[in-house]
Amino acid sequence: MHFLIENVPQFDNQFQFRLMNNAKESILVSRLFTSKEICHMAISATRRAGVEVDNYPIWDLPGNIRFNLFVARDCLLIGAIRYKTIEERDQAIQTVANGIAQATTRDQTFDLPLAA
Question: The organism sits in which domain of life (predicted)?
Fold first, then answer.
């Protein structure tokens, strides 16, 4: 499990991060951030909030069984995977909660050239 920081060119090169599993699938996706430093601070907050299973709101709608993660009052990470069963989703939450604090960070951003 790791965090992946990336540029989002279609939104003025803002930054976002994803929590990825070992199969390189996105588990959770952040909102957009204006700087990489703010993105890193949000990852730190996510590591702290992610160890508490109570911070994961769940969806049990038919065809839409998933979970999100509340990091702070105004910060929510959106679940990127739809699970087939509630049990599968609950196991995924426990797996994330157990490993998120030790998740490494990979920076996939690119440096924009300065205007001459």
Answer: Bacteria
Cα atoms in the Cβ-side hemisphere of radius 13 Å centred on 96: 32
* Regions of the chain short of the pLDDT cut 50: 114-116
Question: What is the distance of C-alpha 63 from the center of its chain?
Answer: 21
Tell me how crowded residue 103 is: count the other CB atoms within 10 A of its CB: 20
What is the assigned CATH class of domain 2-107? Answer: mainly beta
Query: What distance, in Å, lies between the first and last C-alpha atoms of the chain?
Result: 40
Hey, where are the domains in the chain? 2-107
Strand pairing report for 104-107 and 75-79: unpaired
